[in-house]
Amino acid sequence: MLNHRSVLLLIGILLSLHMQAQGYDTASVSSPISSNYLETVNKRAGQLEQKLDKQSEKIITQLLKQENKLKRKLARKDSTAATAVFGDAKQRYDQLQQKLAGTPKLKQYIPSLDTLSTSLKFLEQNPQWIAFAKDGPAKLKEAMSKVNGLQTRFQQAEEIKKFIRERKQYLKEQLGKLGLAKELKQLNKQAYYYSAQVNEYKQVLKDHKKAEQKAIELLSKTKLFKDFLRKNSQLASLFRLPGDPNDPTAVASLAGLQTRAQVNGLIQQQITAGGPNAQAQFSQNMQQAQSQLNELKNKLSKLGGGSGEELDMPDGFKPNGQRTKSFFQRIELGANIQSQRSSGYFPVTSDIALTAAYKLNENSMIGVGASYKMGWGQNIQNIKITHQGIGLRSFIEWKLKGSFWMAGGYEMNYRSGFQRIAELRDRSGWQESGLIGLSKVVDLRSKILKKTKVQLLWDFLSYRERPRPSSILFRVGYTF
Predict the structure, then answer these.
(1) Neighbours of 94 (CB within 10 A)
(2) pLDDT tens, 227-239?
(3) Which parts form a coiled-coil structure per UniProt (predicted)?
(4) Does position 304 have pLDDT exceeding 50, yes or no?
């Protein structure tokens, strides 16, 4: 009688033989798809689904609120015109909500989402790939549900952007007749940031986790999955992908289309007929076309491009690139150090600080930090590590130009040596520091020290403190 271990071994051998028959190199891996892939997809899809839900609900509420504000403002001048322009606004937004409730499947093409969806469909039809995954079928079903829900949320976002486009055009025409077109500035900003946030979520899908990379890489080695992807992916439904030349469907889809050889032959005929300089002229034209195409792609990228509505920004409006990022993505951790030589009162010390800055936008940040003052002794012949104080910091920085920043801050420092934490409760031992100065980011061409920052600061409150600390501070910092 076979025991449990023998049964598993037999199943593994049969599964391995089946996978080899499908063109998979079983010698390169130790096991099929693990449950980590399904759990990772489920978690990420669920998180993005919730975020899209929140953002979509938020933009609809904001836009309706903004329209009501414009209606009240117009009503103070012309109540009849206000009713004519905004009278059916509530009804329009209710219709949008009804449309979103019945949103069809995803119509736009998102490569990363297509890969995730197709891989899950493949695993559903080929359960042997998750045979050893704990609760594989249940986790697969849950992951597919989350990914389908995410596809629906992205399509709902497209419907909302389409509604916003149409609504903006309508209001622009109506308010333009009344000389109030400029009042749409805030509405345009809200619409822009919503579109940018949706694009940010699409970018998140591109950053595959380790479990996702391993699973997709493993599946991509098999002919079975490649064939499935070619026939069942969203891309395949949009454009018939080339496949087996003996496939009647593929042959029918390519009927009447010119082959690459035919196109190349036609180009060569035209170049030959053009004379001796035709080849050089052709190459020059191709380079110019490629340059113009790259320039257009760069412009679209800088503007969050992709859709036309994303380029429609208010005059003079400079988007805040940090606004679409999460709270933790806007946090910049850092550390800095400053040393002071021995004086009549203070020994040789080094202030070691840890900081956390919150980016308000690309050109300014605020932050807090804490420092520890370590004493080294009076000189090299008398080295002694001592606790010489601690400090609490707050700061703000503004970007001036290039890599130069204006820096300011307020600090409280305990500058006396201490043996126990209880000694820090003595308020008389604390001194205030008011700092202002310059920071410069230095590129040291090192991955570890890439964001090195040097600071030169003036403590304008140092003159009233006794004993008086140094009024000029030089700090070297690093950000992570």
Answers:
(1) 12
(2) 887 887 877 766 5
(3) 279-306
(4) no
- The 3-state DSSP class for residue 178 equals coil
Fold of 328-479: Porin (2.40.160)
Q: How many other β-carbons are positioned within 10 Å of the β-carbon of residue 303?
A: 15
Please enumerate in sequence order all residues whose Cβ is within 8 A of that of 352, keeping only pairs 6 or more positions apart, or say none: 335, 337, 371, 372, 374
Question: Within 10 Å of residue 171's Cβ, how many Cβ atoms?
Answer: 21
* Residue/partner pairs of 470-476 with CB below 8 Å, 24 or more apart: 470/340, 473/338, 473/435, 473/437, 474/338, 475/336, 475/337, 475/338, 475/351, 476/336, 476/337, 476/338, 476/452
Please state, in angstroms and as integers, the Cα–Cα distance from residue 446 to each residue in 334, 443, 449, 474, 475, following that order: 16, 8, 5, 22, 19
pTM of the model: 0.71
Q: Give the Cα separation of 384 and 375 in Å (integer).
A: 7
Provide CB contacts within 8 A for 424, sequence distance 6+: 390, 414, 418
Report d(CA 32, CA 36) in Å as an integer. 11
Three-state DSSP state, 400 = strand
pLDDT digit string (tens) for 245-299?
Answer: 555 555 555 455 556 666 667 667 766 766 667 677 767 777 777 777 777 666 5
Residue 301 has pLDDT above 70, yes or no: no
| Separation CA 14–CA 31 (nearest Å) | 13
Beta bridge partners of 456: 438, 474
Counting Cα atoms < 13 Å in the Cβ hemisphere of 468 gives: 9
Contact 114, 138 (CB under 8 A): no
The CA-based diameter of the chain, rounded to the nearest angstrom, is 94
Map out the domains of the chain as residue ranges. Answer: 18-238, 260-299, 328-479
Q: Which of 103-107, 273-277, 321-325, 420-424 has the highest mean pLDDT?
A: 321-325
3-state secondary structure of 46: helix
What is the rounded distance in angstroms from the CA atom of residue 340 to the CA atom of residue 328? 34
Q: Averaged over 141-154, what is the pLDDT?
A: 91
Q: CA-CA distance, 28 to 15, in Å (whole number)?
A: 15
Exposure class string for 270-302: b at 16+ Cβ within 10 A, else e: eeeeeeeeeeeeeeeeeeeeeeeeeeeeeeeee
Q: Give the amino acid at 210.
A: K
Give bridge partners of residue 441 from the DSSP assignment.
453
